[in-house]
Amino acid sequence: MNNATFGIEAGHFVYNGQKIRLISGAMHYFRIVPDYWEDRLLKLRACGFNAVETYIPWNLHEPKEGCFNFEGMADIRRFIKLAHGLDLFVIVRPSPYICAEWEFGGLPAWLLADANIRLRCMHQPYLDKVDAYFDVLLPLLKPLLCTNGGPIIAAQIENEYGSYGNDKAYLQYLKDGMVRRGIDVLLFTSDGAEDGMLQGGALLPQVLATINFGSKPDTSFEKLAQYQPDQPMMCMEYWNGWFDHWGESHHVRDFEDVAIELDSMLSSGASVNFYMFHGGTNFGFYNGANYFNRYEPIVTSYDYNALLNEAGEVTEKYWAIREVIAKHVEIPVDLLPEPIKKKTFGVIPLTEQAKLLDQLDSLTQPVYSVYPETMERLGQDYGFIYYRTKVSGPRTKNKLVIQEVRDRALVYLDGKYQGIIDRTDHDIGLDIGERDIVVTTPPEGSSLGILVENQGRVNYGWMLKDAKGITEGVRLGGQFLFGWDIFTLPMEDLSALSFESVASDRKSQAVLASPTFFKGSFEITEPADTFLKLEGWSKGNVFINGFNLGRYWNVGPQKTLYVPGPLLKEGPNEIIVLELHAVNEPVVQFQDHMELG
């Protein structure tokens, strides 16, 4: 394709001099297995959309400082080229920070190894890291810009910055850095339709401001016009659904309401980007968390009640929106692909087990520290971390205090489970004593072990700087405990685990002595999408053929984990479940439908 231009003339978007309106849908390549990228993009195009928007998460592409990844699920170039082949424009949001209900808002955990770092502002140590990342990322995007014959027509310089700060010099620095590295397409910002957010996050008049909202488009566009008259009106995030936290109900938004507001926006001539068109899945440990009044981790599913569900199936909302779009533009015909096959593989017994605390030396090497260190200070990003120390005795009924835990600690004394210390207990004002752990040690002393789970770094707002593990210290009564062996457990490779047979006399609802890996295998003749149900299990993670599928938790609302067919193979397949608490019976079930509610 020839080089093209996309810009603004007389208050309208124009592509190669022709007036154009953007009807875009958000889709995150990093939440979809690559085998299904084309399927999802085809469904977007078949619904009448002419553009796809995606964030670009820094933590996925630079997981360790100076080590970059653009392969497999991180192959952003392939995703953009697939969109190009389907005649879709592409809007990219490569800001250092993306929010997206994604771990740490897309920022890499290793930034927090420097306890003094200041995020998202003119702090030179932070800017140096951003520059090193942009020096690698932006040259990869440059050949894909419309000005170089590619599909990328616009790029964001920061994301909802007015919800976080007001450092205009920082926004200017990012903008100048993008231009200097050859990003010569339309640049934009996006913020909520409120005075403070637009004042802090927009970089007017040199950069187009767009707004994000879920309802009342007329009111929102009126607010934007106060700051940016005579420019195209664009909703960069039209929230047609919402995400879920663990322990709450699944969010559903009626499709009639979404369709009515879309028709209103398109009738007014505005452009719109659906957030989300297709949400996908927070595989592995990549779910984020929110902190407003308390810490709330986000579930593995990013279904979002979007036009395509988590498994990429068209919904009633899809057809309702397609009908509205057809009133305004011509809809492509014969593009919608056949539904992807879903299969039931039945009940699978997990016949082998390995206790986590017995396997520490197989999984990692301990680091000695006088005081507990955070994950980030030890070079760890995700997963679990285990702290162990010797407590002298005798001691009688000393309250154990972690100052402070992020996010959830399982406490053991001489290998025996003592209870949970959870940061959320403090957030919700749990009565003192309701979950206190009181320790008594014999004259010879005891071994104290604390397993801390990182449940996802905060992805939005003022609590963004969210180091994990034990952030300050551990006390018995008023006395800090010093001298710790620390085991980092990112759970990236489980091949060294040593399994034994599961006892045949397991009792119903057996509480585990310690977190335990359970392993099983199942044979299939034809890989297909399926859904893993863990009824009777409590909380943990699932690994399919070595792939970290994500977290499960019996508090809901998520009741099944989506297993894309490409993760399976013809013949034997391996499943490992890490259960933290209790399980009725070590069996799982693969079924052909999702449960979320």
Explain briefly what this protein structure is.
The protein is an alpha+beta fold. The protein is built from eleven helices and 35 strands.
What does the model show?
With 597 residues, the protein is an alpha+beta fold. It folds into three domains: 22-326, Alpha-Beta Barrel (TIM Barrel); 346-354 and 497-591, Jelly Rolls (Sandwich); 360-489, Galactose-binding domain-like (Jelly Rolls), CATH 2.60.120. It has eleven helices and 35 strands. The longest helix has 18 residues, at 124-141. It starts with 5 loop residues before the first strand and ends in a 6-residue tail after the last strand. The relative contact order is 0.13. Mean pLDDT is 96; it is low at 428-433.
Task: Annotate the secondary structure layout.
Layout: E1 6-9, E2 12-15, E3 18-20, E4 23-27, H1 37-46, E5 51-55, H2 58-61, H3 76-85, E6 89-93, H4 124-141, E7 152-159, H5 168-180, E8 186-192, H6 195-201, E9 208-213, H7 217-227, E10 234-239, H8 255-267, E11 271-278, E12 289-291, E13 295-297, H9 316-326, E14 346-349, E15 352-355, H10 360-363, E16 367-369, E17 384-391, E18 395-406, E19 408-413, E20 416-422, H11 423-427, E21 437-441, E22 446-453, E23 469-476, E24 479-480, E25 484-489, E26 500-501, E27 510-511, E28 516-524, E29 530-533, E30 539-544, E31 547-553, E32 560-563, E33 571-579, E34 582-583, E35 587-591
Parallel strand pairs: 4-5, 4-11, 5-6, 6-7, 7-8, 8-9, 9-10, 10-11
Antiparallel strand pairs: 1-2, 2-3, 12-13, 14-35, 15-26, 15-28, 16-25, 17-22, 17-25, 18-21, 18-23, 19-20, 19-22, 23-24, 27-34, 28-33, 29-32, 29-35, 30-31, 30-33
